[in-house]
Amino acid sequence: MSIKVSKISKVYGSQKALNNVSFSADKGQIIGFLGPNGAGKSTMMKILTGFIKPNEGNVFVDDIDVLKNPLEAQKTIGYLPEHNPIYKDMFVREYLQFQASIFKVDKSHIEICIEKVGLIEEAHKKIHQLSKGYQQRVGLAAAILHNPTVLILDEPTTGLDPNQLVEIRQLIKDLGKEKTVLFSTHIMQEVEAVCDRVIIIKKGEILVDKKLSTLKENKQQVIEVTFNVQVDQKLFNQFENLLSAVNNQENTWQLTFNSTEDMRSKIFDFAQENNLKILGLTAQNKNLETLFREVTA
Ligand code: ADP
Ligand code: MG
């Protein structure tokens, strides 16, 4: 087992940040740790990486008892803390050399990591000269320098622009091919794009722990479609697997189907048959979205 958290509770003063949290992860999983601000994500990660102690419970990483042997455990853990605390006045290589010396890592490994995170072109610059996305890459490079088997990334995509987001998500996916990754986010779409599994946490308690594949088996499909004219609701009755049709605004309908087949092409046929034009058509993955809203609302 790569990660094993059992019955962790953490209290700050009178406030309970984590309440009896348990989960475990096999090798090679990418887990999205999803929850609103203040849910306890960072606290859990600091405990997992041995930086703070819980009031109760046990944590094992790669079968090492983190509470008893934090330094030993940290050798197998790569950690990118929230807000990526890097020394921005340093050059990229200089910073990574500094980190490598702390971890007692062979300096030859630095270039491998620079390549892995796509930093070759920027590695001669000072960190503050880099865009936020590239600064995140420096943080990721530092986290994987000692070749850890488990990666703990605390909101690695917060504050990135849309292009950087896509790049860092892809990088996390690539790293996940050889490592167990736990990363926190409050963006549900991020979990869908990157993870095998989602753990939703709120007010210090785990509310959902599911593989994304089981969420996708849920057959409900929601499609929002805008026609050029108003459509009589009765027309939709020809869809046998229609669960509901809601007229959101003027000519826009939210149609919910019970189907694993992509209903967009059927709606296109429907429009043609009824002499309608489609001005907009989007399929939503209702499953994770509704789940997140239901449990965190
Ligand atoms: P998240 O990372 O999900 O936003 P945190 O783990 O940072 O959540 O925080 C969980 C709760 O614990 C919050 O209510 C936060 O205010 C509180 N908290 C976190 N760190 C401390 C601390 N050092 N002292 C007191 N309260 C804290
Ligand atoms: Mg946090």
From TrEMBL:
- Domain of life per record: Bacteria
Sequence ranges assigned to domain ABC transporter in this UniProt record? 3-228
Which keywords has UniProt assigned to this entry? ATP-binding, Nucleotide-binding, Transport
UniProt keyword Kinase, yes or no: no
PROSITE patterns (alphabetical): ABC_TRANSPORTER_2
Please name the Pfam families in this protein's record: ABC_tran
Single GO MF descriptor = ATP hydrolysis activity
Q: Does the keyword Nucleotide-binding apply?
A: yes
The entry sums up its family as follows:
Belongs to the ABC transporter superfamily.
Q: What is this protein called?
A: Gliding motility-associated ABC transporter ATP-binding subunit GldA
